Amino acid sequence: xxxxxxxxxxxxxxxxxxxxxVASVLAQRPDVQIVLVDDCSTDGSxxxxxxxxxxxxxxxxVSLGKNRGQGYARNVGVAASDAPYVTFLDQDDEHAPAWYDxxxxxxxxxxxxxxxxxxxxxxxVPDDLNVGPTDPRRTMMFNSTVWNMVMHKVIYQVLxxxxxxxxxxxxxxxxxxxxxxxxxxxxxxxxTSQLASRHYVNIxxxxxxxxxxxxxxxxxxxxxxxxxxxxxxxxxxxxxxxQADASTNVSVLRRTLKHRSRGxxxxxxxxxxxxxxxxxxxx
Length: 283
What we know:
Blueprint: E1 5-11, H1 15-26, E2 32-38, H2 45-55, E3 59-63, H3 70-80, E4 85-88, E5 94-95, H4 99-109, E6 113-123, H5 136-144, E7 149-152, H6 153-159, H7 174-186, E8 188-200, H8 206-212, E9 214-217, E10 220-223, H9 228-231, H10 234-260, H11 267-278
């Protein structure tokens, strides 16, 4: 069976929760594909991923020879995927029931959308980091992550995938936000109230780190702590460079497809042409 949607799950020492994440994806629909990308785990996650792939043809397991980070693992996973739609999931999270059906229906029924974003449910939030439903930090997370989003695979590739340079190898998880900024700059993203993901707040993870070093003052988010890469401009420079490259990619492909539009036979190129044509005026 040719998959309709591929879910890429980067894996790094996540053996204890990986089965839960995988089960939540396999339960979505029969034509789903999972790509597990192990990033040099040392806790048996690699072996578990390989066992899962051997037991279910819908699962692919890829083992990296060197630890390269979550962004790199996502890019490898997308390259190995076979479906026209891609989504992402952290190894200790879950995708909510019926999310894939809803997201695909939105994208197929609205050709102008390059991606669709669903709601998130925060799980196991430590008491000292509690986030209410109206907390603007929750909205920021909702709008800057990739694990509550389904998108056209070709659009992910056009943008250059997730940034994976050393500047993004931090506890912040900034590669998500960087990709999303570029996505929204060039394409339209649908927002829906459908629950997409249950995100478990690991005490040592990026979400807890974000909440720990921020506060809300008169409805606005303030950072109480900055990393060295934020202070010295390294992260800002990396953001700018990635966005500039993404803009170049989109412009080049738009011009190329415009000249080739009458003879397009490749399905993925055809999708890209339609989406790029729809957003030819976006900047």
